[in-house]
């Protein structure tokens, strides 16, 4: 019975790892990049 729970825990950990690994990441803003957003273009609406 312990092996069953161990295998369930391992499968769950692998599934969570795959989902976390494949999630889209937010692009990191480098120096000066945060000021580019919205300054030169007219407001959207």
Question: Can you walk through the features of this model?
Answer:
The protein is an all-alpha fold. The chain is built from 1 helix and no strands.
Query: What is the ordering of alpha helices and beta strands?
Result: H
Poorly predicted segments: none
Spatial gap, N to C terminus: 60 Å
The geometry reads as: rod-shaped
Care to give the gist of this entry?
With 45 residues, this protein is mainly α. It has one helix and no strands.
Highlighted features:
45 residues, mainly alpha, 1 helix, 47% helix
Please give the structural blueprint:
Blueprint (H helix, E strand, L loop, with lengths): L1 H21 L23
């Amino acid at each position: 019975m312990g092996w069953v729970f161990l295998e369930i825990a391992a499968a769950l950990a692998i599934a969570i790892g795959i989902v976390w690994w494949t999630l889209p990441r937010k692009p990191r803003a480098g120096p000066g990049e945060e000021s580019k957003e919205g300054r030169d273009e007219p407001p959207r609406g």
